[in-house]
Amino acid sequence: SMLVRSSASAKQSVLRRNFSSGSVPERKVAILGAAGGIGQPLALLMKLNPLVSSLSLFDIANTPGVAADVGHINTRSQVVGYMGDDELAKALEGADLVIIPAGVPRKPGMTRDDLFNINAGIVKNLASAIAKYCPHALVNMISNPVNSTVPIAAEIFKKAGMYDEKKLFGVTTLDVVRAKTFYAGKANVPVAEVNVPVIGGHAGVTILPLFSQATPQANLSADVLTALTKRTQDGGTEVVEAKAGKGSATLSMAYAGALFADACLKGLNGVPDVVECSYVQSTITELPFFASKVRLGKNGVEEVLDLGPLSDFEKEGLEALKPELKSSIEKGVKFANQ
Ligand code: NAI
Questions:
Q1: Which domain of life is it from (predicted)?
Q2: pLDDT band at 22, cuts 50/70/90?
Q3: What average pLDDT is seen over the chain?
Q4: Ligand 1 probe mutation, 99, 104, 140, 280, most atoms within 8 A of CB
Q5: Active-site position among 27, 47, 124, 202
Q6: ipTM for the assembly
Q7: To 10 degrees, what angle do helices 146-160 and 312-337 make?
Q8: How much is the pTM?
């Protein structure tokens, strides 16, 4: 009877395995900047994601330790660490999704644009390598200033002849995460049920939360909505100041990055109706890149959703953000082409 039971359960586990390998495809995810403040907790969260079969951790330093550490976790993915530019090709080959949190973070008093001089060069090099070694991968850009680093990557990809605007994303999920948290606090609704679209870009006033579309609805005064908008726009600075020179948001960013990467993987796997806000190539305003709700699918962006009805306050915010966003885009394009 022992024998019968164990063979029945062996058969069941084979069936289960067949079922799961049939329904959950192999996916390689590469994190560039994996040993950093964001990279490490992001590596942890992606190791916990059952949609990932191979987790590739790249950095210019310290990846062997991070990979050995995360690799001991008993979840699906195989983890490999790669260190230094000589190993970048191997880190990227076969990747379905590349997440980029490489580069320097802000210190108190700095804007995201102050990071441009260092991070633009890093992003340019990494984008060139992606063009060469995994041209079909989705790219999730976290490195700041996102308003410029996404256009830089797009230009590098165009030069390489493999640019697909459906596959390049600026990660603005942390703005959405913050807007949800701050809104729930004021609206007195369960935070897990809250939805708030955030549009525009990812720096200061270019971050425009649409609280008029927030659900569950709440009757908040104009003053409260103004304060919520400002707090969402300054959320990153709040963390930079609290960390007092020790960097910017890393843990909440890793959470947001993992959430967005998961949405991208679900889209790739054919899960229907996956919608997240992201900064993408866009025609919904006159700006060539713009953050809004996008529907994710097997090819990346399936549809850039329109903005929906805006309050007068939000319409003003939209017009006010355009000049800064436009100049950040142009700065990135110019850098990539010089
Ligand atoms: P960090 O300094 O802790 O880590 C950055 C990592 O990048 C380091 O491990 C470094 O060795 C690595 N790196 C540098 N050059 C590299 C290269 N060429 N290739 C691969 N790796 C390289 O910084 P942290 O806190 O992780 O922030 C990373 C970036 O994310 C910053 O640009 C920051 O502004 C941005 N950020 C973006 C947010 C968003 O909402 N999109 C939110 C928070 C931060």
A1: Eukaryota
A2: low
A3: 94
A4: 104
A5: 202
A6: 0.99
A7: 50
A8: 0.94
